[in-house]
């Protein structure tokens, strides 16, 4: 009976890799030709398995979940234009790595870095408004709350 159960689990891990492995998270920043963050861009990552989709936040940051190791085509839709890039993820790549895309012409040029763009965005937001406080991180995206100004009324 134990052998049968082990065999079933082994078959399931190959047949349904997402059950055996949560997958890789492709994350980074999308910038324009002038290195300004591109907000509200759609990011689609397509490889051999199920595609992953994401949207950039106001800092140009994105996260695409559930990817397996391999090669992918990345399509970014920003301001009505389509940009295409490529990325390869290896099992030997560090887990904390960021995949940044710079939009130029019709291409999304990839830069791979260990620089944490999410942390950089938090630091910049706090620098821009010293009255802000960081409440937490939800799915890797930054939630920054601002201290009320004198005379502000609470929202009901």
From TrEMBL:
SUPFAM superfamilies reported for this sequence: Carboxypeptidase regulatory domain-like
Signal peptide extent: 1-20
Keywords tagged on the record: Signal
tRNA processing found in the keyword field: no
Keyword Transport attributed: no
Pfam entry (one): CarboxypepD_reg
Identification of the protein by name: Carboxypeptidase regulatory-like domain-containing protein
